Amino acid sequence: MDPLEQFEITKSYLLDRLPKELSSPKVLIICGSGLGGLADLLTDNVSFDYADIPGFKASHVPGHKGALVFGHLGSKSTPVMCMVGRFHYYEGHSFFSNTLPVRIAKLLGVTHLIVTNAAGGLNSLYKPGDIMVIDDHINFPGLAGQHPLRGLNLDSFGPRFLPLSDAYDFDLRLKFFKIIKELGITRNVYEGTYCYVSGPTFETRAECRMLQTIGADAVGMSTVPEVIIARHSGIKVLGLSLITNAAVFTKPPSAKQALINGLDSIVDQTDGMASHAEVLENANNAATDLKKLIEHFVSNLE
Q1: C-alpha triplet 12, 105, 68: angle, nearest 5°
Q2: Any idea what the CATH number is for the domain that residue 97 is in?
Q3: How far from 278 is each of 63, 119, 129, 272, CA to CA, in Å?
Q4: In degrees to the nearest 10, what's the CA dihedral of 148, 176, 18, 287?
Q5: What's the pLDDT at 43?
Q6: Which of 39, 81, 83, 91 is catalytic?
Q7: Range(s) of the domain holding residue 152
Q8: Active site residue 60
Q9: Is 137 part of the annotated catalytic residue set?
Q10: How many domains does the chain have?
């Protein structure tokens, strides 16, 4: 099917079922692992299961409900659309399918994207529960040719050769930090570079050392494809990483050295090992602050 035809089918499906006051949302919020509770803040909400929306895929990742929710958010009752769960390349979906909701958001009138994720901390300062405001990214799959803009360019959305030096809007980041100060949030909030890897495996020790060496502060399996399509569509982006686990950098224990030292037993290598359960637990623990920040941020958008 022609991409523009698919977009029109999906858009029409939603508009036929949305009340007028929610049919032109201003903000798209994409909820990462464990952060789906952001949608609970919406009032007058209308929800669609991904499985029922033409062109959408089912979400099979724990912590991702798989619903598109429209509603009002904040003191100004700003109309927003909220993805409770996202699609990932590692699930077998194409980049076109993964980013289709962002294209639909643009066609509905969205001007701002707030994208959240759960990420592993590569920066030695970062601890689980900290928040990182994304100021730049490294697109590892994209550098190797797996890019969401690969193929014929959709000229009606944006240019063939898209600059990304301004991917994460400075004014939006400044506004977010002002709100942190106004609300008296005491949780550590940093700015840093997010590295996108395809997953679904968590990174090895050597990979963590490499990513830290090339300038990444946090690493995860999402976000960048959505950001690229948003910027291609002229949508301004605020990206937020919730640090849910700390990367392991030390080299694996040496079996050779253990034998030399007279040790003839299995050495535990699980200390610090990442798990999805840990990711969800830490995301849930920090969700209250993040929900408060996003609600006030949306209320203060011009």
Answers
A1: 80
A2: 3.40.50.1580
A3: 12, 11, 11, 11
A4: 90
A5: 95
A6: 91
A7: 3-299
A8: no
A9: no
A10: 1
